[in-house]
Here is the input.
Amino acid sequence: MHPSDYPPLLAIAMLAARADGRLDPAEQAAIDKFVAGIGAPDVSHLAQMVSGGGLRVADLASKLSDDEARKTAYETALAVCSADGVTGPAEQKFLEELRSALGLPASGVAELDQAARSLASVPSASPVSSASSASDFILQQAMLTGALEILPDRLANIAVLPLQLRLVYQIGQRHGQQLDVNQVKDLAATLGLGAAAQAFEGIAMKVLGGIGGGLLGGLFGGATRVATGAAVTFAATYALGHVAEQYYAQGRKLSTADLKALFARFQQEAATIYPRVQQQIQTQAGTLDMQKVVAMVQGR
Here is the structure.
């Protein structure tokens, strides 16, 4: 992929984040961080043009150099639109407009769309098995989400949030709580796990980073950044699971301040655990593919 593809790819990702007509603070923070990190005047100007409505999908699509870049653009937009757990009508319309502008046949993206739909919500799931302790289960799920960060498949990012939410859902069930998706998401949001921010940053780094120098190569280069992403996601999932365990065990009576303090404590604990399980996470990543990931999220 040519460095000239980076600005239109980033702009398409930004447009995808705004496709439903609103931009959450978490989304805006992630985009600002990404643009500020790049620090290139042309990219900052690009961000201003996106926010001001000065760019059209068709024009951006026409600037992409080859089929690889066009496929990457669609995958990135699909991942961003799916990041908050649901792809609404406006986002679906945007994706269809983008697909048409990119010249991609519907049949060519059908598998991607199906994977995104399958990963877009928290599935019904059985409670944590009594044969497995909550701590063991949380560790297993943290390792799984860490492994997803290592996968080269860009849509693997979509699976991280559903797996994290499913973890909370299962822990709540274990403590007799009947939860719906919004209750689970509220707890994750309280702890700062903004769906769009988390997904956008990860997707942007995977898609635009480590492609060999150029505009972004120095900032988002290669294996070190991937390893960092795996460690961060592992820690977030580990902390989320343990906070949920204490929250539901105590009848949902912990304050927001208590929840955040616990989350920070368990993140620090996870940082000490990660080096001991890093090799296992890398091995697990080698056995995963998107079909298996979708099946896991669906509880199959």
Summary: The chain has two domains: 3-118, 134-297.
